[in-house]
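Standup notes, structure subgroup. Blocker cleared on the 2-aminohexanedioic acid input:
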Amino acid sequence: MRMERMMEKIDLKPVQDAVFRELGLKEENDGACCGRWLAGGDSISSVSPIDGRPLGRVRKAGSEEYAAVLAEAREAFLLWRNVPAPRRGEMIRALGDELRRHKDALGTLVSLEMGKIKAEGDGEIQEMIDICDFALGLSRQLYGKTMHSERPGNRMYEQWHPLGIVGLITSFNFPVAVWAWNFAVAAVAGNVTVWKPSSKTPLTAVAVTKIVQHVLAAHKFPGAVASLLVGSGGEIGERLLTDRRVPLISATGSTRMGRHIGCVVGERLGRTLLELGGNNALIVSEHADLSLALQATLFGAVGTSGQRCTSTRRLFVHEAVYDRFLESLLQVYWQVRIGNPLSPHTLMGPLVDAHAVSVMQGAIRRLQDEGGRVLYGGEPLLGEEYPGGAYVRPCLAESQNRFQVVQEETFAPILYIMKFRSIDEAIAMQNDVPQGLSSSLFSNRLQETELFLSALGSDCGIANINTGTSGAEIGGAFGGEKDTGGGRESGSDAWKFYMRRQTVNVNWGTALLLAQGIRFAM
Ligand code: UN1
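Run returned:
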């Protein structure tokens, strides 16, 4: 008997009712907020992928709400930029405390609305809490450098100022954490944000906006420091992209979407911070601890049902350990418990919706057409145990790196497996895709691990040794190269992207001395 047959039936209604009550959600919710909530027009129905039933509705912002929110955001910025950064940090600390209080309910709501398992839903809220702690510290560390001037009597230094209104476009797979690691850093830096969440997960966005509104009000700060615009990409998203009052657009999503955003915002010479597709590889050397590599592969490929931008999509295994590793992998895949993400026994919940299932099926067909071979799974799971049409069995497939489908990111649990003979060959294959987000090598051999981390090694924004491709901590700068978009957000010095750098010269001497020793006098 497969383990997935042990799936528990959980009555979602009482769980949903308790979460809605705690988070102040109703059957019908306003989707625009700038301190006050604005009614908006037609609503989006948010459907749970757990059973395909509607959870509630959110009214979409139209052009009137857009105009009101942007005007208030501008006003809020004029005030917020003048609040000392450590005081802005206090507000973020209070936000972190509120998130701690509601962690369980929010984690459950994330599971209900997008389908990731409860442990990962809670993990997502933990990432929000962690970035609040980080941003609180950061609020006292927005350091600028002091330079030694070539001119006597000249003080030269740089300082950092806020940009203004930051537009946040986020995706369904981390429906609230992406907002948090942008908002917390942008806000302590003195910016205000306007958030357009994914239309697949509007309820989590409304719930989190209610929390941040409560915190802002308690501190007597304007609610438009953290505005919300639920709406369609074609309408609200496009308006944000072309709006000159929005100097920075930070967007998470597909490479296709990012290319469009880059062009439109680039046209007006605005700034973009892009977190786009990944096509992350995990390399298992013959010098690897295979048990570690196995655990990391499973979490990377099956975790979040393969719907992280950091998910492990390609697996390169050295020929000497290939058969052994594959056999163990098949065994653990066989035991993956698929089902209701709220059950503590479940390892893999549904995909976000039935459309994602058909995209996955299409990718598997293309793989087979190109000559790939499915070793395990890939099929949709049907029947009354799997209501709603979004459950699949994760797929293992023998592939070639050059296959077109392997070169693309399919947001689903498909793991393409390939054999290699030398570490140079593995690194070359891992880099030979358009994307460059995350990468890992499992090896206990120094020469290999250092090669992987050298300039000759991984070309990705994240390079890991003996730990998997997904599950990055917020303390590091997060993002990737090439088609992944080049953006960096969350930790390290990613805050600099949310600020404008100003180089300052103060002449405290009595003469006007020119740089480069130029004499320019009558
Ligand atoms: C994403 O999938 O969009 O590294 C972000 C991770 C998470 C972030 C994923 N901390 O897997």
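Discussed briefly. The longest helix spans residues 118-138.
Next: hand off to the docking folks.
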